[in-house]
Amino acid sequence: MRGFAGDAIRRLRANPAAVLASGVICAVVVATLLGPWLNPNNTQTLDWLHVAARPGLQSAHWFGTDRLGRDLYARTLAGTRVSIVIGLVASILSILVGVSYGAISGYIGGRTDQVMMRIIEILSGLPLIFFVIFLTVIFGRSESLLFISIGAVGWLTMARIVRGQTLSIRQQDFIAAAVASGASSGRIIAKHVVPNVIGPVIVYATLTVPQIILFESFLSFLGLGIQEPGASLGTLIAEGVGEMEAAPWMLLVPGGFLAVLLLCLNIFGDGLRDALDVREG
Amino acid sequence: MNTVPTLSVDELSVSFAHRTGTVEAVDGVSLRIAPAECVGVVGESGSGKTQLFLAVMGLAGNASVRGSIRFEGKELLRAAAPAINRVRGSKLTMIFQDPMTSLTPHLSIGTQLAEVLVCHQGLSWGEARDAARRMLDRVRIPEPQRRLSQYPHELSGGMRQRVMLAMSLLCEPALVIADEPTTALDVTIQAQIIELLRAMRGEAGTALALISHDLAVVAGLADRILVMYAGRIVEDAAAAELFRQPRHPYTAELLKCVPSLSGPRLARLPTLAGQPPQPGDALQACPFAPRCPRAADRCRSERPALMGASTGQVACHFPLP
């Protein structure tokens, strides 16, 4: 790697907070993947002898158990995995939709642009929670619906950012040169516009992942997201809140995971923004 | 002229909507460019020379374009986008003024050049890169193989303009439009690019439309010169003829402004007094009348049409002999 990407990686490495954050993120991801092999408890077995047990490395339940006797270590890791997957998938969805929508809108311009941007404004004006409740009422609760409803909203800001960048790139001479070379609009958007907006897109995407994780946890906390016996950080926190006074670890363990993960993703996103030298307005 | 002209423009107008009304950047221009002919288009800033050819390329943006543009006999102005894109970039190409910004920054030179051939001639990427390398060699870029994998920011301005030139020549075009191809370059590089353009004409029989405000650049290359003023062609003459004996007073004044190396040292460079007409100024008069030493009453009330024999046309009521 040389040039732009190489420079960006070098700048990122020089930022200790970002390096540390990316290390923690990697550790959490590895833990969610390998964790179940380290401790054989599964997420659904009810251990009636250890209901609401305290956490401790000597006991079988490292992070304790919940009020049904389920192992909190297994459930927290599974929940974290679900949250990360939702965050990634919904972010990728929002990148695909947002980048193509924004690039097309900005490149074509004129009336098309106006109409496409008004649609975005209408969508972003919808109260999100009502929108999700509405969808769950119509289609029933399911994980795929969760992806769709989060993804449906996540791309709006991405589309706005990409459109803004495209508007400035469209004015550049090399776009005129590409038009003069006989390239079709689709080809120009795909090969000459989109790669030029990739910096802001990456930065915004890394900042989108924590937003979506938080939003998913929020929905699950309200009971609109992941359903029992499945777990996400949101449902675990919701359960933990009920036992907050008697068994604080039920709140603190998943809450801690969520807080650390979000903090690290945000620090990493900030570091990436500095490294890619994206100027935000 | 028996053969079909490479480019034939009739009554072309390019106008912009403006809050004070419409502004005619190009005002009813007609011209022919024959195969293998080199036509220079000169005029001061704002004379409409660039807009004229941007309209030919279909790059006029949100300006409204009226009239007719035929390329090798086929109408371009009302053609569908796929038909235009088949011609654009292969048979009809354009070189822009600023090579620093005309290349896409994140694609290597090889990719950008090869893309043209892949799109227009259906070559494989491998063949296209080979052809691109040969073309880079032809525009005298040293180490063409290495350049293919380099990015635009790694090349100097002169090299980038050569790359643009190579790109415009890849598909053996019938007409290359060069919009001030040397303005953004150093004088020495400028000479090399002009040399290259001259060689290119001899090699492939490509017609060249050279847009410039630099008479010296045009003088060395063009067979025929069009002088534009306020969106119109005011004189159309063979290059040698025009320099020897300009007929339009504007051309004559313009030639007086060219500094000479051999003449006496002047305290001041001669300039053309006054300003070109503002949009919306008296449309009935000759637009050059306010600055013209020969202007008479007729010039202020009647607009002269471009008239004359095929060897030289002039839009003036009282042309110089």
CATH fold-level label of chain A: MetI-like fold
Largest sheet entry of chain A: none
Enumerate how many helices of chain B there are, as a single number: 11
By CATH, the architecture of chain A is named Orthogonal Bundle
What is the radius of gyration of chain A computed over CA atoms, rounded to a whole number of angstroms? 22 Å
Element order of chain B: H for helix, E for strand: EEEHEEHEHHHHEHEHEEHHHE
How many strands of chain B? 11
CATH class of chain A: Mainly Alpha
Write the layout of secondary structure elements.
The complex is a heterodimer of chains A (281) and B (321).
Chain A: H1 3-13, H2 16-38, H3 72-108, H4 110-125, H5 128-139, H6 143-170, H7 173-180, H8 185-193, H9 198-221, H10 233-242, H11 249-276
Chain B: E1 7-18, E2 21-33, E3 38-42, H1 49-57, E4 64-71, E5 74-75, H2 81-87, E6 92-95, H3 109-121, H4 125-138, H5 144-148, H6 157-169, E7 175-179, H7 187-204, E8 207-212, H8 215-221, E9 224-229, E10 232-238, H9 239-244, H10 249-256, H11 297-301, E11 312-314
Parallel strand pairs in B: 3-8, 3-9, 6-7, 7-8
Antiparallel strand pairs in B: 1-2, 1-4, 4-5, 9-10, 10-11
Helix pairs in contact in B: 3-4, 4-6
How would you characterize this protein structure?
- The complex is a heterodimer of chains A (281) and B (321).
- With 281 residues, chain A is an all-alpha fold.
- Chain A contains eleven helices and no strands.
- Chain A is 73% helix and 0% strand.
- In chain A, helix 2 packs across helix 3 and helix 5 packs across helix 6.
- Chain B is of the alpha/beta class and 321 residues long.
- Chain B is built from eleven helices and eleven strands.
- In chain B, helix 3 crosses helix 4 and helix 4 packs across helix 6.
- Chain B is globular.
- The mean pLDDT of chain B is 84.
- At the A-B interface, helix 7 and helix 8 of A face helix 2 and helix 3 of B.
Short description:
The complex is a heterodimer of chains A (281) and B (321). Chain A is mostly helical and 281 residues long.
